Every structure is written in C-alpha cells, then in structure tokens.
Amino acid sequence: MEEQGNRDLKAGNIKGEKRDRVLCPPMIIARKEILSNLLSYKFFVVLLLIVLLVATSLFIMHRDFGQRMADYQVIRPKPGDPIALVAPNPLAIFARGLDDAMTRSFEVSVIGIEARAGQASGNIIYSFFPAPDFLYVVRVVLSLVALLFGFDQVSREREQGTLKLVLGSSVSRAKVLSGKWIGNFLSLAVPFLLVTLLGSALLMLDRNVHFSSGQLWRLALILALSLLYLGFFLSLGMLVSALTKRAATSVVILLFLWSLFVFIIPNLGTLLARQFVSVPSVRALSEKREQTWTREVLLGIGKGGNWADHMRTISSENDQLEQDYRLKFERLVRLSRDINRISPAASFLDAASEIAGTGIGEESRLKREVIRYKDSIIDQLITDQGSGKRDAQYPAFLYKPRPLAEIFAGGALFDTAWLVFFNILSFAVAYVAFVRYDVR
Amino acid sequence: MIKTIIAKEVRTNILSFRFLVSFVLLFVIVAVTALVLTGDYLRRLDEYSQRQAELERYLRSYAHFNRIQNILQATQPPIPFQALVRGLTADVNIEAFDNDPLPVMFPLIDLTFIVTILVSLIALILSYDAVCGEKEDGTLKLMLANGLARSKIILAKVAGGTLTLIGPFILSVAAGMLIVILHPRVSWAGPDWAALGLIVAGAVLFITVFYLIGVLISSLHTSSPSSIMTSLFVWVLLVLVVPNLSPYVSAFLSPAPSRIKIAREVSRLTDVDRDELGRKLADERRREVLKQYPVLAERLTEAEVKKRVAEDPEYRKAYEADRAANQGAWNEANRIQGAKADVIRQDLRRKEEAQTGLARSISMASPLADFTYLAAELSSTGVRNTLHVGRLAEAWGRAFGGEYVPKKMAEMKAKDPTVDLWNTAVDMTDAPRFRYTEEGLGGRVEAALPPFAVLLGYCVVLFAAAYVAFIRYDAR
Q1: Domain for residue A318, yes or no?
Q2: The whole model's pTM is what?
Q3: Which end of chain A has fewer beta carbons closer than 10 Å to its terminal beta carbon, N or C?
Q4: What is the ipTM metric for this complex?
C-alpha cells in the first residue's frame, strides 16, 4: 500500500510542478505533504480517530448537558428564596471543567452557606475516570495525533532517500521545513475543524442549548487555542524527527515527551504544590464549621443570651475561616499553575477552560460572589428568623461570568502567549536542527 | 531452542535505545511519585491527628446530644497504601462549599496511573515491531528456515519481551517502595505486603496483555510504521477512550432518573400529599367517631375541653377515642405515603445499580479499567472499601446510639432529674469513636477477582490470536 502511495505521490509531484510553477516552494511542498498524507494509512487511522472521538464526545456531553439542564429547571429557586444558583453553561459541552461544582445550589441560612450537590449521580464509575469532553479529546488524543504527523517528517524522508532529492533542488531548508509544517498542519486541522464545526452546528439545532453570540466567540477562541496547541505538538514532532536518524527512535522519544507533558507534569505539579502551601483539607474545614455552629447554638440556649448575637458570632467566625482558607487556596492554585505551566497541556487546559467559563478562576470568583451575596443578606436573615418572620423575601442572586478581557488579564493571555512561545521555540529549534541535519 | 530465542529477545531489547529510555523514565517517575505521595500521606496524617485533637477539645466542653451527630462522624484516616494507590480517596468533597477543584482538573498521579498509561505505552513501543520488524530486517526468514515451529517462536518472543518489561518494572516499584518504607513514620503491615504483591501480579498480567496486543498487531502488518499506527490507535481506544466513555454510554443505555427529581417527588409525597391525605382520613374517621359519640359535635375552646375531660368520664372516653382516631388517620397517611416514597426510592436505587453495573462491565473491556479496579480493591481504596466503611459506621452508630446515649442520659438524670437531656453540655470524651480497620485480605481479593479474570482471559485470547496471525504470516 505504501509503495503504491509513493508512486502516486511521485506522479502527483510531476503534474504539480507543471501546473504550480507560480506557487512558491513551501506551498509546493505543503501540497505534496497533503497529497501524500491523504493516501497514507496513517491519515486514514487519524481521520477515523478524529471523527469517532469528537462526534462521540459532543454527542455524549450534549446529552449530559440536557440532563443537567432538566435538573436545573427542577431546583430553580422561587423568587425571594435566599438561594444562589447558576444555570449550567452550554460551553461545558466542550470544556466540562468545574461546571458540576459551579451549578450546585448554594443555600444561605443563618449559619452560612450550604452547598447542595443534588446533581450528583449514584454511578460511582464517573469518579474513576475523567470526563471525555472536547478539551480532553484535543488535549490527550489529538496531541498524540499531531505528534504522529510530525514524528517522521525528516528522518523518514532520509530513510527513503527523498530528502536528498528535495534538498538537491536548490530549495532552502527553511522553506522545506515550513512547507512540511503547513502541509501537515492543514492535513490535521482541516478534518478536525470540519468535524468540530459540523458537530457544533448540530448542537445548535437543539433548542435547549442556546449559545449567545459572546459564547460563540468564546467557542471560536477555544478552537483557535486548540489549533495552537496542536501546532506545538506538530512542531515538537518535527523537532525530534530532525534530531534523530531513525523514525523508530523519534517515535519513542516523542511518546515519552507526550506522556510527560500531558499527564505527568500537570498531575504531579499540583501534588508538589501542596507540599509547599499547606491548605486545610475540605474535611477539616467542614468539621470546624460544624463545631462552631453547634457550640454557639448550645451557648445560645444555655445562657438564654441573645440568639441573634450567637448567630452573628457563627457568621463572623466562619467568615474568618473562609477568608483564611481562600487566601491559602488561591496561593496553592497560583503555585500549582506556575509549576504546571512547564507543560503546554496544562496551559492549554487552563486557558481554554477559563475562556469557556468553567475554569478554576471562574469557580473561585463564583464562590466569592456567593459569599458576597451571603454577606449582603445574612443580617436581614438573622433578624427575620429571630423575630419569627415567615416567608420573608430576599434579593435574587445574579451572576455574570467574567468578560473575556478580564479572563485574559487573569492569566489566559499569559497562557496563550506561552503556547505561542512554545510553538515558535519548537519550530525554531526544529529549524536549527534541520539545518544541521546530515542528509546522508 | 526456546531458551535461545528468549535469551536473544531479552538481549536485543535490553541493548535497544527504547529500552534504555523507558527504563530510566519509569524509574525516575516511580521514585518521584513515591516521594511526593509519601509527603502527601504524611501531611494528611498530621492533619488527621490535628483534627482528632480538636474534636477531643470540643467533646470535653460543648458536646450535647441534640447536635452530636453533626460532630461525631465516621471519617476514615489516611492509610499507608495511599502513598502508592489513590483510588477513590481524592479529596473532592462536592457536598462542601469549599470543595477542592484541583483534583477534578488535574487527576492525581499514582502507581495505577504509571502502570496503566506509561507501562502500557512502553509495552507497545517494545512490541509493535516484534514480527514485522524481523521481517523487515530479514531475520524472520532465517529463523523460520531453521526448522523451528512457529508456535515456539511466538511463545519465546512473548516470554522474552514480557520478561524484559517486568524486570525494570519490578525494579522501579521496589525503588519506590524503598522510598516509602524508609520513611520512619510509614508502617507497612503484613496484609499490605500481600496486597502489594497481588497488585504487582496484576500489573504483570496487564503488561502481558499490552505486549500481546503489540505482537498481534505486528503480525497483522507487513511494515512497522503502519503497525505502530494501529497499535497506538488501539491503545488510545482501550486506555483513553473506553473507560472514560463507559459511564456516559451506560447512562444512555440504562437511564436512571435524576436524583434531584426523585428528591423533589419524595418530599412532595411525604409532605404536601401526606398532609392532604392525612386531613382527608382524619375527617373520615372523625365522622365515624362523631356517629358513635355525638357529644363531640359541640364546639368548645381548648380550655373548656380540658375542663370537661377532667370532669366528665363519658366525655373523656369520647375525647380519647377521637384522639386515637386522629392519630390513627395520620399514622395511616404516613404509612401510605411513606410506602409510595419507598417504592420510588427503591426504583431509583435499582436503576442506579443497574447503570453502575453496566458502566463497570463496559469499562472492563478496557484493560486499564480492569487494572484500576484491581489495584483500588486490593489497596482498600475502591468501591468495596466504601461499602466496608459504611458497615463499620453502622456498627459504630449502633454502639453509640444504642448503648452509649441511654447510659449517659441515665447518668445525667441521676445527677439532676430536671436536666434538659438534649441541650446540656456534657463531657463525651468517653464516647465510643469510629475506628477504621481495613477489611481482611480475603474480601479484598474476592473483589479483585473479576478484573483479574478478565485480564487473564485477555492474555489467553490475545495469545491465541497472535499465534493464529503468526502462523498465517507471510515471511517474505
């Protein structure tokens, strides 16, 4: 099959030269790369993988979103209830992130905020494996695919002897490399974009999934970031390929780099950050809260003191606890982000999920807003309960996700720039390696 | 002859560049992970004892029976195995306001992860050209011309390849274990060692499965570049896709109603609907009672009723009958509505169990999921352990509610007969505490048997398939 592919390729090249005399050399090479990819077994496997995974993931996450939306309709607070609840984010179909935690209903009572995770499922298998959303497919699977497009670009052509021929025809090495990059990038990006856009268009046929124009922009940004991320892995593939003599060696190195970038650095990084920043566990925090309020309630009954005063003590002590925790936790998040940024996969995940509005930054902000909402009504709540007033009305909780400008200022811009930097760096090093490459 | 080929396989593998890279990487990552996870375990241990101390202080001064169930809870202490296998112990706690989002975004890394992702990848990297590579080099022809049975060649190849993989793996795990146990505060007991041994045995099976997949694919292809493409495709599906999709697919195939809807329905049944039914039944009963005791028809204020009950025995009898009828009606309403709610709850539980079972079966098509379950069950960080903790908590609850509370309350009454039993602070440092003990090894092994069997089945089937494919292989 491959021999036949090569024959077709040569034929295509000859025809191409006749027709494309006006095209500049990188474009000719890009064209050749695309044609040779189209005929290869590799492309067939990759295409199958992209179609299968993107389509399945969108279908399944869409269904999941529909169910969560139905749940949301059931638990929506009545007007006047002191409950903070935000609707599921349709972009969670693409980037699930922390949407589960964010769409819990936060009920404010005299002793503070209580989160109800009603949406939890009884199916424990969910907790064993991460959710297969679009970001997961891009971050884990398609990055591997991009590597496979790049891993044999230089070494394989050397092994086949075609590299000598290409370089013999007075085309500069920079042009050969960029032509290869463009050709392979297009062979990966075009099917990927086609499938994703088709899938998104199908999603929009469902009336329950309503994307605002702002969200469509965000989706476009996420797609652009995905392309940037995949471009990095393609360049990385070409880089390693230009550093090795044999394609078999380059694939081994690349697979290890891939597992390091995609899994090991981000996952070990968060654990490592915890060694440096000591943050109380969730369990410890909730135990402390329980101890505080039960103690104050007991004291309130025993001494016959002012009930409202005891409630205010609970509130202020919990606030103190919360403030302290938030401070430490945000330091932990910052540190683990900085460690994780060694890996572009973590940068990509952070930036894309923040843009989608399901990232760690957005979740922290929602919690801060919920706390502010609680602060604004807790006094009223205590007074009303103290005087035995029933069905009192409280202002509704309103939450607007951060605008894009704020998201970018909050780190997404850095992550994007970081990805661009990784791209340029790997391409530049690949160029240097290719210039020094021994074609024999 | 087999020995010669095995020795040759081992030697070529060990001398190859990919083996060197794999070994170094595996060794370093296992060591770093063991180090970081041990630190994490010790940090949790410290926090746990701190929490216990705080609890003691509370129990001494502020414990009271009305709200003690909010304070004394069944919490599991960290176990030493968490320095190797995390299982379900990640501290996400979605029920708490301050849930931890980091493990959701970046799942933790542990031995299970290293085996399932890294080692399986290494196995494929070493095996994708086992057959077609030899064909390309021309050595396959030579070997077959030597009058050697193909079955022997394939057996020797698999044996040699798996051996070269298992060696470095066990060495790396040993190094990791050394880091863990050299720490003075980590104590490993006998059953832990046995469980670790079984986990390593499972890992060996898992490695064999992936090596066989590589050999099988390699004997289906004539060129090694296309063989590695197919191998990686299969790897992606088995390792990265099937397990993650399984719960969603099973939710699609075997739907369970949402817990929120059920909770609402149950609260409607046992609240609004119950009140309605209760009132209706009470009215009916009252009419019957009125027929029997017409005296009750008179409208009296509460005080007048009290007076009359005290004075008139006839009226008192009627009044008591009325009260009993009313109580009976409400009990009846509670019973009927409770039964209805139970039916719904049981239906939910049944459907959820069916869904979980299906998700588990689908995911077990992936060797990754098999090994994950096996390691989690054996290290008591899995589903079975959750059930085990539930049972322990129940027994503790009985000891606390059934023995300790009445005893303590009797003591309180003996001291002061008018005391408010529920809302008086009393020193409860002598209360029975929840003590976590790991389940015996027998139960853990029992839970790990199905994934073990699936992995073994995979080995047998894949070996047979690889054998057939190799027999039909065109060596030219």
Answers
A1: yes
A2: 0.88
A3: C
A4: 0.85
